[in-house]
Design a protein that fits this description.
Elements: E1 2-4, E2 10-12, H1 13-18, H2 22-26, H3 30-33, H4 43-49, H5 53-62, H6 77-83, H7 87-96
Antiparallel strand pairs: 1-2
C-alpha cells in the first residue's frame, strides 16, 4: 500500500514493515499507519510475521495502536506469530496487548 510520506515521497508502508525500516516508518503519522491489506491484516500483523518486536513496540507503545485486531479470517498478530514460530513476538504481545 503506497502513500506519500511527510517528505512528499511515495512509500510502500507494508514493504517498510516487512523489511523492518523503523527509521522510515517513524516518519509516518498514525493515520498513515492505520491501514489494512486485502486480507484486512494491519502493520502489526506484518511486524509479527517478520519477527520484529522493535516495530511492535513502536506501533503499540509509541503510536498507541491495538495489537489485538483481527484480519478477515479472525487471526490476530499473535496468531500469525505463533503460526511462524516467533516465540519472542508471542511473549511480547501477550504482555503488551489488550
Amino acid at each position: 500500500m503506497k502513500i506519500e510520506n511527510n517528505n512528499n515521497q511515495e512509500v510502500d508502508i507494508l514493504q517498510l514493515v516487512k523489511t523492518g525500516n523503523l527509521r522510515a516508518i517513524s516518519d509516518l503519522d498514525s493515520n498513515q499507519l492505520n491501514i489494512r491489506d486485502e486480507s484486512e491484516s494491519t502493520v502489526i500483523h506484518y511486524a509479527a510475521r517478520s519477527d520484529n518486536t522493535e516495530l511492535l513496540k513502536f506501533f503499540i507503545v509509541t503510536k498507541s495502536m491495538s495489537g489485538s485486531m483481527e484480519n478477515s479470517i479472525g487471526a490476530t498478530p499473535a496468531h500469525d506469530a505463533a503460526a511462524l514460530g516467533h516465540l519472542s513476538v508471542i511473549e511480547w504481545l501477550v504482555d503488551h496487548t489488550d
